[in-house]
Structures are given as structure tokens and as C-alpha cells.
Amino acid sequence: MTNILDKIVANKRIEVEQQKKEVSIDQLIKQIGTANKQGLFKQSLINSSTGIITEFKRRSPSRGWIFENAKVEEVIPLYSGGGASAISVLTDTVFFGGTFSDLTMASSLTKTPLLRKDFMVDEYQFYQAAAMGASAVLLIASSLTIQETKQFAVKAKELGLDVLLEVHNEAELGHINEYVDVVGVNNRNLGTFVTDVQASFDLVDKIPNEFVKISESGISSPQTVLDLREVGYKGFLMGENFMKTDNPGEALANFIKELS
């Protein structure tokens, strides 16, 4: 049976081939700004007192629409002002309701480091990410070979992007390489989309300490953040907790107040 991740990745390969026909790598290179963003995402997590990574996400395959009419220009400045250490922006349209212009606009509205959250299957996408103003990209271990992970991480570095490698279980830790900046444990099984924060507690000691560690998905209470921080996590990616409210920026500010 095809799981959700397989379906998304298969669709992504078709999309990228189409995008290559519309915009060449040379055109993307001309759009890449001169500002050096290398290390911004990682450093922001190291320096942050909260480590909260907020997310701009309109929908998900598991929940459907979360905030269908969410506007980048309303949410992103409030995330920055509310204390987010980094912001993840979904650029997948079919499954998550995101667009390229969401990320491009977000980069014009904030100095907070931005993660391009998408399913990376081709080097072309890293040029896109840099052209859109991202500081970091996501590599999902379960959708890549170990060789692809390294190849993509090297390309990201060439383009001045930090690398967040996402793992779900101990078997995927073999994807970690020296070009990775941050290792994230996704508490959501991307095959079934079920979340269990215990995954982060189980894997934390198995990730080498030279990598910044973050926990992703299924985090909704300040106490969970405090417990995860206690065992060694520096960042906490919260995808739906704020977006499911009427005012994601206010929800973030209130959450951070409860952490102190």
C-alpha cells in the first residue's frame, strides 16, 4: 500500500520536472540575493531562549484545511515579533496549500531565519529555495538514500543554506553527515501521519551532540517543550498548534509566556 509520503514524493518529482521547463537554473541563480545566510538558522536556535520554530501552514494531508485563508503578510510579522527563533514556510501546494510566493513574501517581511519546508527530490529545488530567500532547507531521511542526503546537503551548503535533516527512527540516523547542521526528530510517522512525542525522547541520546537537535510535530503544551529541552533539544517545530487558532501570532506569544 502506498503511504502518504510516497504519494507526495511521486507527485513532487512530476512537479519539479515541470518547473524546470518553466524556469531554468540560470534564471534562479540571477534571483539569488547577495546576503550570506549561512549558519543563520542553526545559530538562531543555539542563541534562542525559547527555540520555538513556528510554521506557516494552511493545510495538511492528515487534517485537511487548518487555516485556509491565512495570509503571510499578517502571520509572519507576528511570528517574528512574538519571539519565534525560526519560521518554517510550506511551499507544497497540492498537499499543504503553500506557494512559492508565501516564502518569497515572508523573506521580504522578516529577518527571522526561514526554513523552506518541502519534499526535496532534486538539486533544482535548492536553487529555488535560495532564490526565494530561505535560510535553510529540509531533507527527509525516509524519502532519500544516504547518498542523496549527502549530495543534497553539499548542494545546500554551496548555496549558503543550512540543512535540517529529519529522521523518524534509529535506522535513519545513518543519513547524518558532516554537512548537516540540525537534526530533527519528527514525532509524526510520515507513513501513517500518527504523532507520538516519545520518538524524540527515544532518539535524543543516539544523535551525536555536535548537531543541534530539534523535536518536530505533536507538541502542544509548554510542559512538553520544557521536558524536551531538559533532555537536550534546542528547537521545537510546532506546525499546527498556532495555525489552528484565529491569531497564530498571539497564540505564539501566549505560549512563550507560559514557558518562562
In words, what does this structure look like?
This protein is of the alpha/beta class and 260 residues long. The chain is 40% helix and 17% strand. It is built from 10 helices and 10 strands. The chain has helices at residues 4-22, 25-31, 40-47, 72-82, 100-109, 124-131, 146-158, 198-203, 222-231, 248-259, and strands spanning 52-56, 59-60, 64-65, 86-90, 114-117, 136-140, 162-167, 182-186, 212-216, 235-238. The strands form 2 sheets. Strands 1-4-5-6-7-8-9-10 form an 8-stranded parallel β-barrel, surrounded by 5 helices. The protein has a two-stranded antiparallel sheet with strand order 2-3. β9 (212-216), α9 (222-231) and β10 (235-238) form a beta-alpha-beta unit. The radius of gyration is 17 Å and the shape is globular. The model has no long low-confidence stretch (mean pLDDT 95).
Write a concise synopsis of the structure shown.
This protein is α/β, with parallel strands linked by helices. It has ten helices and ten strands.
Strand content: 15-25%
Secondary structure tally, helices: 10
Main beta sheet: strand number and arrangement?
Answer: 8 strands, parallel, barrel
Globally, the shape reads globular
How many beta-strand elements?
Answer: 10
Low-pLDDT stretches are none
Strand order of the largest sheet: 1-4-5-6-7-8-9-10
Radius of gyration: 17 Å
Order of helices and strands: HHHEEEHEHEHEHEEHEHEH
Classification by helices and strands: alpha/beta
End-to-end CA span:
45 Å
In percent, how helical is the residue content? 40-55%
**What is the average of the pLDDT values?**
95
